[in-house]
Design a protein that fits this description.
Strand order of the largest sheet: 6-5-7
Number of helices: 1
Number of strands: 7
Distance between the termini: 28 Å
Shape: elongated
Strand content: 25-35%
Order of helices and strands: EEHEEEEE
Length: 93
């Protein structure tokens, strides 16, 4: 988002997938990176995505017959993909 120096833009109440201001600052290119741009304010940060957010993968769990696993070998596994909200299975993503 480019704007003239002195402009202030609000991205408040946005879900970033993190609450780390260091990560969010790294994702934003604004006045603090180039003084020819405007300032982007992003606080407060949403802790959970709103219902209107585009569906995205919230978590992935891998399990063996013994339960959740962080390492697997040559064995049957199950993979559970959880989205941030229910998806319509009749609509191709």
């Amino acid at each position: 988002m480019r704007g003239s120096r002195g402009s202030i833009y609000s991205l408040a109440n946005n879900y970033w997938g993190t609450t780390s201001t260091a990560l969010i600052d790294a994702a934003i290119y604004d006045f603090y990176d180039d003084f020819n741009y405007g300032v982007i304010e992003y606080q407060p940060i949403l802790l959970t995505p709103p219902e209107t957010a585009y569906p995205f993968v919230a978590s992935v769990t891998v399990a063996t017959s013994e339960g959740a696993a962080t390492q697997v070998g040559a064995e049957p596994i199950s993979v559970t993909v959880t989205f941030n909200r229910d998806m319509d299975p009749d609509v191709q993503p």
